[in-house]
Amino acid sequence: MSGSVAALWRYPVSSMAGERLEIAPLDASGVVGDRLWGVVDASSERIASPGREKHFIEVPRGYARWTALDGAAISADGSTWAKPDDAVVIERLSSLFGFPAQLKPFVRRGQEGFRPRYEHAPIHLLSTAAMRSLEREMPGSIVDERRFRPNIVVDWPDGEDPIPENGWLGREIRIGDVVLKGSIPCGRCGFITIAQDGIPLDVELLRTVVKRHNRNFGIYCDVLVPGEIKPGDTVTVAPASA
């Protein structure tokens, strides 16, 4: 059985809205430009965690993008963009978020400083089969991939397992010339329930994922062979070890 890449995402600022990609360059740390910055409350130095604290629940309404030429850019409305230290845009984001915001760059593994929460998980992969399963379990809910913040959405046929990627843990996943390896399940928090642009609040989503799937939905992957991937690339999974 095989599938294909349905969508690719990058999140230059952790917890802020991401950007959909036509080409995703991958290195050992994941999608290039992904989760390079974090949002903190300047009054307390607490890192934003929208899925765990209501104080940060508006952070996903901010926008971020990244280019190799200019690096990260941020926006409060998706149309006016500036550098992460631009005072005007930071003021607009602070008004949107409801607290004095500040953006800080994350440090690389082994360095001292502001550390990302997900450095153990370079790539987050989610299948369309898993999302369709959740739609069947929750008819009427909006099961939008943006709720789950995957880097790679794989179009995969339905089968016996409601979340087929659970069976890919410990196995090589080939996408074009790129090779990933499934590492651990992706445990979910309240982030998947909160409102975003065009997505309503839905507190029942997390309850369902906890009850039916032991809180896990999608998987994390390591990058074994880096390269570029794009929508439409074929996805194959190596057979399970005997």
Question: What features would you describe in this structure?
Answer:
The chain is mainly beta and 242 residues long. It has one domain: M1 Pyruvate Kinase, Domain 3 (Beta Barrel). 13% of the residues lie in helices and 33% in strands. A 7-stranded mixed barrel has the order 1-11-10-14-13-12-16. A 3-stranded antiparallel β-sheet has the order 4-3-15, with no helix packed on it. The protein has a 3-stranded antiparallel β-sheet with strand order 6-5-9. The longest helix has 11 residues. GO terms for molecular function: catalytic activity; molybdenum ion binding; pyridoxal phosphate binding. This is MOSC domain-containing protein.
Summarize the structure.
The chain is mainly beta and 242 residues long. 13% of the residues lie in helices and 33% in strands. The chain has a single domain, classed as Beta Barrel (M1 Pyruvate Kinase, Domain 3).
Please write out the topology.
Blueprint: E1 2-10, E2 19-20, E3 24-27, E4 30-31, E5 37-41, E6 46-47, E7 63-67, E8 71-75, H1 87-97, E9 101-105, E10 123-127, H2 128-137, E11 152-155, E12 172-175, E13 178-187, H3 204-213, E14 216-225, E15 227-229, E16 234-237
Parallel strand pairs: 10-11
Antiparallel strand pairs: 1-2, 1-11, 1-16, 3-4, 3-15, 5-6, 5-9, 7-8, 10-14, 12-13, 12-16, 13-14
